[in-house]
Sequence to fold (282 residues):
Amino acid sequence: MESYSNVGKQIRLRRILRRNGRALVFAMDHGFEHGPRDFEPVWEHVDPNIILKKVIRAGIDAIMTTPGIVRLSYKQFLGKNVGLMIKLTSKTELRPKEDHLLQSPIGFVEDAIKLGADAVAATVYWGSPYEDAMTRNFAEVASLAHEYGLGVIQFAYPRGPYINEKYGKKEDYRVVMYGARAAAEMGADLIKTYWTGSKETFKKVVDAASGIPVLLSGGAKTETPLDFLKLVWEVLEAGGSGAVVGRNIFQREDPEPMIKALLRVIHRNEDPEEAAKAEGLI
Fold:
């Protein structure tokens, strides 16, 4: 028989990963991580109530955000069929440069439970001088979250001076693959990581995760909507399970067509160009 906590975890994860095992997750942690400047292209979206109302109405599968944002905007979630991930680590760009490779706790598993979360998220910068502190924190988060039946997503980001020395850049598929494998071996239920430049290399990242769903880290806004739709399509073709998207959604004045086109690609397997045309993006 399954334990109560594992049953609870599976129920909560299904609110994020839909019937086809895929998800489109909206990321709303940029105000802490990058500063409010990320909202300058569409300044009204600095108000979480405004942007969350739009993305939930568009049918997003889940929201990933910080504890305080949920507290500020919880009314947007009431009665809505949307999953909730709460990110429990972050950093600001105001700290000294030498400490930019460290993510610190900004909340606790108990906070996520109180806020009604389905899952929690924490970052590990694989290759950072502070890797030990972040792996210790992730282990503590994952252990307690699993005890209470919450899913756990690791943002598995390779970053560090030795990576640059050995691999040349943080997106090299070998180091992204390594980070994904390490996340799987730490007990992550979902993994968010970088695009590696090709479908063939990203497939190796998915293979290394050994069945743990891998989600694309959406990154900076692309030149055109179609460019991003094609990127997500390649992730899916490689065996990925979807994407966690921030700037490619909230830096658009009307994010609804983009969200609906992404949902077509992720859940209906529609061709990116056809999805873009259907939603008036091209």
